[in-house]
Amino acid sequence: LAAPVVQLPASCPQPAPASDAAVSVEPASASAPEAPVLESQPSPSAAVPAAPAPEAAGADEGGKPQS
């Protein structure tokens, strides 16, 4: 296929953009794995909100003394 492409210089410009699109797809694939990783990070983030939950309990404790 590379030989035919070389034979078609007019097609060269078209394959070039196509290659760019393919390149864009490759980064997108790389981003895809990264996205799951980010999702993994939100899980720790969920744990972080869990930390505020104790803080909320602390607020309740504060409310108890107020009571």
Automatic annotation (TrEMBL):
Source organism, top-level taxon: Bacteria
Start and end residues of each stretch annotated as Disordered: 1-67
The protein, known as: Uncharacterized protein
Low complexity compositional bias, start-end: 17-67
